[in-house]
Amino acid sequence: MISINSMIDTLSIKNLHVAVEGKPILRGVNLEIRRGETHALMGPNGSGKSTLGLAIMGHSKYEPTEGVIELNGVNILEWEPDQRARAGVFMAFQRPISIPGVKMADFLRHASTNVRRPERKEGEELIPMREFRKELRQKMEDLAINQEFARRYVNEGFSGGEMKRAEILQLAMLQPKFAILDETDSGLDADAVRLASESIARIGGQKMGLLIITHHDKLLEHNPPDFTHVMLGGRIVETGGVELAEELHRQGYERIRKTYPDANEMNQEMVEQAVP
Amino acid sequence: MSTTAELGFTQTAFDAFLQSRDEPEWLLELRRDAWRQFSAMEWPARNLEEWRRTDFRLFKLGNFHLPTEPAAAPQLIPGLLNEGVEVGGQLTIVDSRPSQSHLKQSWIDKGVVFGSLSSLSRSHGDLIRRHLFQVVDPSYDRFAALHAACWCGGQLLYVPRNVTIDEPFYIHALMNDGGVDLGHTLVILEEGAEATLLTETSSPRPEATGFHCGATELILAPRARLRYVSLQNWSSSVWHFAHQRAILHQDASLQWTLGALGSRLAKVNQEVALVGPGAESQVNGVMFTEGKQHLSYHTLQHHQAPSCRSDFLYKTALQDRSHTVWRGMIRVDQGAQKTDGYQRNDNLLLSDQARADSIPGLEIQADDVRCTHGSTSGRVDEELIFYAQCRGLTRNEAIRAIVVGFFQQVFDRITIESVREALGQAIAERVREYK
């Protein structure tokens, strides 16, 4: 994993089935993301979008029952979440978790060290404090984040908007190869969405493979998707270009639901079962 | 359970102990009284609410001896709380006997008295007599009576009216293997006086046994301010029984920080009595238990006067098969209107076998008060671990960060840097690898 790290350029999901507490959620997802590409993942509530993100990161509650997730052909399904993170996979959480008593700056310093030096062993030196502080200060300035953030505890007492900005800050610090943004624009006002979108575009640039899970079009304005995928009932039922995203924003999911009645039925069932 | 094999604590041993003491008659009389009580009393019954979660049947008083011989030479153990701290006075105690003491001339000149309570009982007899056992009750139970009869060594800090001591005072009490510590802490702050007292205990090696039966009395006259830190860092083979109580008069203020890391079995009563209007207390507790340790704390915030505030936070992490008990009470007397009382106890369980009993309580006789309490007990949340892992921290690193973070909330309240660092370091050393 380590030696090929810098060469990794493709994240592939092949026929992925995932169950939560025995209940199937994903039913054969296929998706390939190359660095530099932007993919939009859309779909009604309960269709499995967040599940896909959490499964890619390796959440233990999301159990893969079939299929593979690969980085350049290497199956990572058995990898711990931190191994995936160190290989360059990142997710901005829809609902970020707070860690009481752990300062944002300390957390990010540890995270940045591990991600930049995947071979680092527990207990080995972290990035020098001075160097790290300088970089963090700069990135916070770029994102118009109050410097006081660094001293606060990770997501503790953050407003919805602050949490989302903190996720983008982590994205900027960790510079992953692939980033899943799970509704990073929700909870932000119009100005904040614009700032977030611009930041993501700047951070991502040509180097990052982006999977943007969103209900809104604002985030996609600055990050026009090369591919738009529509998820329904735990499957990607349709893939198109930017025009598909535009259509869904204008007209909603009626056409999709009608075109794929089986998946739609499955989706209704999943929503009724209210699997988180 | 009664006196079956209390060899080291027989009448003969007690008489010899009294013989060896160069003490004023009033004090010897006090001891004899307490000894009579001790002899007449039974050990606390196991069905008492205070004791029913704490099984001390394996404690045998006869395994220990009254300290009549001079203490064995101490092994020099560096202290934790005084690291990098310029202290105004310092006292080292070994097995209940004073070994070294120092007080800066500038504080002597201001009338500050600091040193071994035993040694000062002749020169400052009147002062000690006025206060000794006025705060804790020597007849509370058999341990209290034993302490009152046999206490020795101990420490006194007396700060005269309006004297502000701007350097911490430091006390290190060591216990040799098989040793006994019957120390009594007496702190008297006169009106408007201010002081910081750091105390810690240690054992020479991790498995050293020992017996501590102690008492602490803190007396804060009007407007006095005390920061008191006690770090209990004995080995996990030491028996620890203590009664600790503070009395706060009008507008006095106390910050009492307690660290509890050692001892095989601890049974501690920690009480704050707010007897003058406008008094304020803050109690902070940091505990980390492992192995088969059993720590039992019974705390009381007693509001006897109106317009007082009491704040209380204990945080405990438990691993292995250790067990903690916290029974906390906020008691508000009838006249204590405008009371603001708070208590909270959080427990982090780091193993399936660890157990934390957390029992908050309120007894309120006044009608215009604000009292809140809470307690939590739980494992390290898997969602937190996952989130940190998604940022590249290993599972182990994530748990470590979460455990250290758990204590941060109480560290944030501790205003003395060396104390924060010592406790932080002690915790970091204890956190293991968890699967």
In summary, what is this structure?
The complex is a heterodimer of chains A (276) and B (435). Chain A is of the alpha/beta class and 276 residues long.
What is the multimeric organization of the chains shown?
heterodimer
Within CATH, the superfamily of the domain at 5-97 and 178-273 in chain A carries the name P-loop containing nucleotide triphosphate hydrolases
The most extensive interface between chains reads:
A-B, 32 and 25 residues
Count the E strands of chain B.
20
The fraction of residues in strands of chain B falls at 35-45%
Report the helical percentage of chain B.
Answer: 10-25%
Query: What is the architecture of the domain at 5-97 and 178-273 in chain A at the second tier of CATH?
Result: 3-Layer(aba) Sandwich
Uncertain residue ranges of chain B: 1-5
Shape of chain B: globular
Major beta-sheet overview of chain B: 10 strands, mixed
**Beta fraction of chain A:** 15-25%
- Give the N-to-C terminal Cα separation of chain A: 32 Å
Residue share in helix of chain A: 25-40%
User: Whole-number radius of gyration of chain B?
Assistant: 21 Å
